Amino acid sequence: MRGYTADKDDYLKRLRRIEGQVRGLQRMIENDEYCIDVLTQISAATKALQAVSLGLLDEHLRHCVAQAVAEGGEGAEAKVREASAAIARLVRS
């Protein structure tokens, strides 16, 4: 079981909403909407994806990493390195 399993439906709803936002962006471009309006919507979609990312990261730290640390050993170190790398990717994006 993954750390986010309990909230899976919520994550799926959010991602479907984001998918709709992206489709809306495509329509805006097709309809030659004003650049700033398109950029505003891109910003909103980006923030929504960031919120999903942060939620998943929190779940990962609370469940997967915490469990690995409780068990100890190389698995714990690997999970911490993996989480650190994920955080670095999120910060760079």
Descriptive keywords:
mainly alpha; Methane Monooxygenase Hydroxylase, Chain G, domain 1; elongated; repressor; transcription cis-regulatory region binding; Metal_Tscrpt_repr; transcription; metal-binding
Word description of this protein:
- The chain is an all-alpha fold and 93 residues long.
- It has one domain (5-92): Methane Monooxygenase Hydroxylase, Chain G, domain 1.
- It is 85% helix and 0% strand.
- The protein has three helices and no strands.
- It has helices at 8-30, 35-71, 74-92.
- The longest helix has 37 residues, at 35-71.
- It is elongated, with a radius of gyration of 17 Å.
List the helices and strands and how they pair.
Elements: H1 8-30, H2 35-71, H3 74-92
Protein name: Copper-sensing transcriptional repressor RicR
Subcellular location: Cytoplasm
Keywords: Copper, Cytoplasm, DNA-binding, Metal-binding, Repressor, Transcription, Transcription regulation
Provide the CATH topology. Answer: Methane Monooxygenase Hydroxylase, Chain G, domain 1
Strand and helix order: HHH
Level-1 CATH class name: Mainly Alpha
- Give the distance, in angstroms, between the N- and C-terminal Cα atoms: 28 Å
Return Rg in Å. Answer: 17 Å
Rounded mean pLDDT is 94
Label the overall shape.
elongated
Low-confidence stretches: none
So what's the oligomer here? single chain
Instruction: Return the structural class.
Output: mainly alpha
Largest sheet: none
